[in-house]
């Protein structure tokens, strides 16, 4: 057993051990988890000459405080190995240690391997982390082809009932200089390689383009009757795209840029979804970047439909296929160009059309099915030069989102301003007058050293004043704590102390607090959180008041400024887990998501706001089956199933000392309770724990860092 303790400014990365033996070399990796001991089994054969440790994917200063080897008996090592597989790998998840060992034995016999060979290979797989910046080429070569075959399995292409013509609009302005004529050739080659043949390409060039360049474009298009070249009447990208749209005739429409390429099965994937989801009006997919040498970089695996994320940034990207009839209703690309005073880049034009689609969905609440379909898989490769040249600008995004807000008739209520990321926007939703009363529920037992800073920080650092603070005392015995509870309730009229003289049950305590609360909005607050600044509650109340929003979560930090909570992903670690945990405070996160308001399936009840009516409609917290763990996840899923969108905001920031008061689940009784609650979640929610719409099926359910699956 290798044991590693590390103190660092950055709480992520890998320690990779290179073991040199008389017969060769091998390496093992161990995720760095500063603040807790990192451990893993390593089989050390005879004849070791040297062991070298290297830190990977870690940036910042660090100090190694412990590096220890502990020799284990085979029995103990096998037991630890089997437990690891049962807790981490999907193939063994939920099995007992004995069942894991028997499964390994059967598989080793079937494959002609020794038990140790197979067991160590599976154990190593449980630690392997496919970081996008290091392992994406491996993923493209080894994993993607397998996934692609699975996505295309089923009915033959010829047997599909509907086989629409798909129109690709290719406006050519002076941006073609970024990729050159060779980039255009690569784009056309990717079209010719499509497995689905019913497509048309409408190329419209700016009248300002050099005649010689236009001739080269015509030469590239060749004699394929599916391709047409037209002279544009305007120079703007919006105007050229509109002209291409009018000239095209396909039932599905998407825009395209010279230099960008499509995956060979990209259009086939769209047509299969077209048949499988006939109510969908928009189809979009994941994308990455490609350089001049054809090397694929920087994948962006997107969530399914995420309206609040779209309001802040154009996360749909370039691969977005709309049904033609809908595009006429959304008004033309030319109208978008006229609405915005700036000349729009391709990314900005995509975002503008997506926002119009979002406005259309808001006005069609009677739609039986969600009219949008996400195709998981990298189907579009954006040329790196196009991405750098067409980056969205914050002032333009603010203008586009402002136009979206006006379409909803809320321009006098909602303020749009630049977001935390370049090219993003932030919407400030109004708080009604008179402001709704918020009831903040804080369960506690003794622990004056953490309770007092929490209570005082909330009372002193909360700009939103119309709240009551209900301290739910669960059998405190400490005289100092009891004296403080009496003193703070006497000193501040907003504070009430309610006694809960029962064994600890987080769900029951909070349900009791809700029955005593007077507020229209409820806040579930741990007794070990402290606001960073005064605006936290205003932001959360403004989001929670929106009729379509259910639970609202905050951005929580450990005391050392590393991320503790930026939302919960279902299925992570078996049931649910915090993504982005241990990221530095200023990190933008995966695809910028640490700095963007977004919809998530669940958020932690360490700091959660929800309207009382919503909480009561779903039956509150489950005190019978989920006394301690997963009750917040269960609540959020129930709220989502009731038709509300849960939301996480980076604009409400608090410190969280995480479970200081309750302690760790380190006794047999606590472990047994945790296993019962985990079993309940799996039994109750089943497949929903394996298919989180706010995540992506190509991302890991083992680690918290958006590494590849």
TrEMBL record:
<dbReference type="Pfam" id="PF00535">
    <property type="entry name" value="Glycos_transf_2"/>
</dbReference>
<dbReference type="InterPro" id="IPR029044">
    <property type="entry name" value="Nucleotide-diphossugar_trans"/>
</dbReference>
<dbReference type="InterPro" id="IPR001173">
    <property type="entry name" value="Glyco_trans_2-like"/>
</dbReference>
<feature type="domain" description="Glycosyltransferase 2-like">
    <location>
        <begin position="439"/>
        <end position="616"/>
    </location>
</feature>
<feature type="domain" description="Glycosyltransferase 2-like">
    <location>
        <begin position="183"/>
        <end position="330"/>
    </location>
</feature>
<protein>
    <submittedName>
        <fullName>Glycosyltransferase family 2 protein</fullName>
    </submittedName>
</protein>
